[in-house]
């Protein structure tokens, strides 16, 4: 009996001695900074979901926006989120006033969060530079035969929104260069915008925008995303194409299917107030999974 016990004990010691040691892997990224506008902030009107850890409440930053999910998934030790509703490329280097809502304040220049040690940056910007988000609200009409946006922006065959998108391209490129100058060792990932309205598939009067203007808005969003992809190529940064996987989840879809909310400022995902024509939590989760897939995580 004792011989058997000793033999078993010796076998255990041998197994322990030859088994490889399991050590915790250090995080791949040490310092992650998120930059951008309301779609980067995961902007929400639900007070229970607002987070003011890194920015004022007026930035409407969501507690579980895509950047926070990415930081948690990658176990990044140092994380800062500068993204703020209403931000433009100008707000990367100047204070952004936030005095037009119930949370008056200002967001410090977003680039102030970058350091030479920053090794991961995500950015989603451009929609406010061209004014596309604000334009959506001006397309609303009580008469589906009217197309106030096309009538306003397409004059003598010249599309002024297309001109705005073209004019914003060098600003986006300069923003990317500004990141690289401040954080030369950073891996930079640029995002694009989710599918908000579908070409040829209006849902008037649920979203009271005429079929003509819906198609025009979808075309302008496509042009904006194409421009962002071009900037990513020109500047040599990575591109997280969140739009590609979002087709079929636009604001006309049913709750639980749509990833972008429509005109009515409430959402079922999760239940509560919503920011019109912005991603709900399902859309935010898609942004996170797309960024992680881009990073290979």
TrEMBL record:
GO MF annotation terms: hydrolase activity
CDD domains membership: SEST_like
EC identifiers of the protein: 3.1.-.-
Origin superkingdom: Bacteria
Signal peptide location: 1-24
Keyword Coiled coil: no
Keywords carried by this UniProt record: Hydrolase, Signal
Segments passing through the bilayer: none
Boundaries of every SGNH hydrolase-type esterase domain copy: 35-283
Descriptive protein name: SGNH/GDSL hydrolase family protein
UniProt lineage: Bacteria, Bacillati, Actinomycetota, Actinomycetes, Mycobacteriales
